[in-house]
Amino acid sequence: MGAYDARMQALNISLFQWLAAGHTPHPQLLWIASVIAEGASWACVAIMGWVAWRRPPQRAYAMGTLVAAGVTALIAHALADAINLPRPFALGLSPPHIVHGARGSLPSAHASVMFTVALIFCMRSSLRGAGLAMLAIAVFTGWARVYVGVHFPFDIVAGLILAVAITAVFWALVRLSQRFIIPRLVRDDAPTALRPKGSEKQGVAPTAVRHA
Predict the structure, then answer these.
(1) What is the pLDDT of residue 212?
(2) The Cα angle at residue 120 between residues 188 and 100, in degrees rounded to 5
(3) pTM score, two decimals?
(4) Domain for residue 121, yes or no?
(5) How many domains does the chain have?
């Protein structure tokens, strides 16, 4: 197991050295990567806000996605603190080209949350376009955060794996609610909704007696 871990870490470092800016970054590329690494997550927030504003029927789904994103962030930070994998700049592999703390790096919270939101949106056909756009943003953000020296490639992959797991749980909860909770609510409301006008009155008016 120790030899396997050593090989995986060696692969992780090799991939980082291939993808990252390191100690001799390209100035223009570093500027682009820094902008993406620090600000691209707001593009996902803007897309979610646009969906909630322009598509009222999807607001409940967007709010559920937001809750899932919050849960994902909490889990990602808890895992990062527990695993406590040093960041590349802490190992001297690269300067931190953006301001960043030295807490554990695996999984990447940015990748975890952004992939979660993107995948959950992709599950719904009416939101798939927005989901694919956020998926592309998440991929570029993952690359950018590796390039600026604050994450290893495996941190991003771990974030994607966590996002897939959270999305699977979200999908299961949606299916359960559609199968059990929503039909029960509809069934409970049906007698009132389908009751004819005037049927709430008790008794029947007496009919006139026709005399011969």
Answers:
(1) 42
(2) 130
(3) 0.82
(4) yes
(5) 1
